[in-house]
Write a structure and sequence with these properties.
- This protein has 315 residues and is an alpha/beta fold.
- Strands 3, 4, 5, 6, 7, 8, 9, 10 and 11 form a nine-stranded mixed sheet that branches. Strands 1-2 form a two-stranded antiparallel ribbon.
């Protein structure tokens, strides 16, 4: 039995039993993967995948048990590699952060600067995507840390840690009539075209829920994943914007004004997601604590071990 055979099994399962896609992802050949899977099945004495002709059609019952163990073995093999790298190379290595544009643009710059100053030999990468992509990348080991507001709770492979809370605001061009309303109401907002985040991003679910509960239908004329894009089109007069409060800077966003909206949409919690069972390197603990000071190494270890539920953390 070889680790490479286990990698083939797991990747084929991840790719929906598509051997061609698995081969492409692993930079190898489809016949090579098929041969190694058959050799492993012969060694184990069980069939992992049902077949219909040359195609894989399903995972067998013993196959599900084999895959669960294979994933665990591959994770532990990766942990061994991480330990070796950490102690052999000292404070060097790589760290991949998967996050949204809003976090990368507004929440992370100071953290990244402090981290790079503290760990100049670590190669830091920011992979931006929508929350589901972020969770997928991290759960598959393609990213080390996920940072997002939406979607992470849907992935049991991830340990979620609350980092901070934030709220929305309504932005309007100077002189817009809605600026006279304090506080602004949902009933007022539905009278104007609205520009806000795409449905998967930055607390959009809370915005939708607020209007649904009030039995109101907002006139959303444009959506984007980027608060800077939203502000640009608000400045052009296409509508009012609803964005994260952290994304508005009155000194930089000239020509626009912001109205508080936490009373309308409540607060949102940004979380860090870590893959269960992963060995964290020293600099990963440092990054996490720089981003959320209450997430000390002890707190993270307790969460990873399951001895402290995430909802016990006070923000």
């Amino acid at each position: 039995m070889k680790l490479q055979q286990l990698r083939y099994l797991v990747e084929v399962a991840r790719r929906g039993l598509n051997v061609s896609e698995a081969a492409e992802a692993l930079y190898t050949s489809q016949p090579g993967i098929s041969k190694q899977i058959r050799l492993l099945e012969e060694e184990l004495g069980v069939t992992v995948f049902q077949r219909g002709g040359k195609r894989l059609t399903a995972i067998t019952e013993p196959g599900r048990a084999v895959l669960e163990i294979a994933e665990r073995m591959l994770r532990e093999a990766e942990n061994i590699r991480r330990v070796g790298e950490e102690y052999a190379d000292g404070d060097s290595g790589s760290l991949v952060i998967a996050t949204t544009h809003t976090q990368a643009r507004y929440a992370l710059p100071a953290v990244v600067k402090s981290f790079v100053d503290r760990h100049p030999r670590v190669r830091l990468s920011l992979h931006q995507g929508h929350p589901t992509q972020i969770a997928e990348w991290t759960s598959k080991g393609e990213a080390d840390i996920a940072i997002a507001t939406e979607a992470l709770e849907q992935y049991p492979q991830l340990v979620m840690l609350p980092c901070y809370q934030w709220v929305h605001c309504v932005i309007a061009p100077d002189g817009h009539p809605i600026l006279a309303e304090k506080p602004v109401s949902l009933a007022s907002l539905v009278r104007w075209p609205l520009i806000t985040y795409d449905s998967a991003f930055t607390g959009r679910s809370r915005i939708n829920k607020a209007f649904e509960l009030a039995e109101l239908t907002p006139n959303v004329v444009l959506t984007a994943i980027d608060a800077d894009v939203i502000k640009t089109y608000v400045g052009l007069g296409l509508g009012l914007g609803i964005i994260a409060r952290m994304a508005f800077d009155p000194t930089r966003d000239t020509g626009l004004q912001a109205l508080p909206a936490e009373h309308l949409f409540g607060s949102n919690t940004t979380r860090i997601g870590l893959r269960r069972g992963t060995h964290l390197r020293r600099y990963e603990y440092d990054f996490i604590e720089l981003f959320a000071s209450h997430l000390t190494r002890k707190a993270v270890d307790m969460a990873m071990a399951g001895t402290r539920p995430a909802d016990e953390y006070q923000l």
